[in-house]
Amino acid sequence: MLYDHVEVEDGRILELHKCPFCYGHSLCNDLLYKGTKLNRYNIGFEDSLLNTYFLQNILNIKNVFFALDSYSGQKMVIKKLAHSSELDEFDQNEKMCVKNENSCLNKAIKLYGEIIKRKFNQKSFQTLSNFLGIDFGRCFSSRLIDLMYKGYFLTYSKSMENLEDFYDHNLALLTILKINPEPIVLQILPKKDGWPFPEFFGSCGRIIVESLEDKTIDQYYNSPFQMRIKIAKRLLEAIKELEYNKFDIGVYLLDLGLENISYDEQNDKIYFIDAENVFLVDKLKIKAEHGEDFENLLNSDFEECGQYGDCLSFNLDKMCESTQVDLNIYSGLVS
């Protein structure tokens, strides 16, 4: 029946035929053979007509779906990382290389195929990021690249130490970076290490799976004053931790919205549940280049955006050279 529950392995979900330009295969075994069910969990509509792939797909332009692991009971979010129209445009560009050849992975393979077969270092990663127009990797250090690989291979439960050919894995990473770097952010900044982001479970084809966090803070507009004060305090603390942390990684939220921030009432903790527009800066790299005592504060500029309201502007190149950036605090106060 058209409205029956659709299992995760449905071709409309995974799109495995799009590989190697997909997000990886670390969860394919679990999703295909261990009983993870799509749409068995949907807030407010469990076991109803609205709890189907058909209607979720129509009502859900962001390609975000809810799922339940039938073994562990873990509530999860399944993301395709972009709107269907954006994914279609990406695929068409890869097929035809018509819009901008310099941003085409197929052309990158022709020019840098040997580089893609090997583990990226800072130089090769920068070369490919520049060629493909990937802003996220603009000032990646060797340390951030190592953290990216470490998190990526943890989801495969295997080591990369003896891996000789990185080709498929690197294409998956580059595809993610081109479409939406959120999975890489979640792997570099894992929840288990205390970072305020969802837990990343893995990928299969054109989906990623991460933990489902609690209500977003825009749903607390009508809550008692003391509750709103408590949430605001936790939000500012979480934002401060993104700037000042023991890892010396600057984590900057380029597009902070209340609907992208979750509050866990039970544990009194904030989570940033949409990591698409996150920018990372390795402060240890800056200190290594300029000296341990080097400090460079970058102030965010306020601009009027006409019909779009007020805006904050930022310069990614300057952020790459700054040990302190006030963007997060400014954005948090505006929010």
Automatic annotation (TrEMBL):
**What keywords are annotated for this sequence in UniProt?**
Secreted, Signal
Location relative to the cell? Secreted
What positions does the domain FAM69 protein-kinase occupy?
176-330
Instruction: Please tell me where this protein is predominantly located.
Output: secreted
Keyword set includes Transcription = no
From the UniProt record, list the coiled-coil ranges: none
- Keyword check for rRNA processing, yes or no: no
According to the UniProt record, one GO cellular component term is: extracellular region
Similarity comment = Belongs to the DIPK family.
Family matches, as PANTHER family: GH11358P
The entry's protein name is: Deleted in autism 1
Q: Which organism is it from?
A: Brachionus plicatilis
UniProt lineage: Eukaryota, Metazoa, Spiralia, Gnathifera, Rotifera
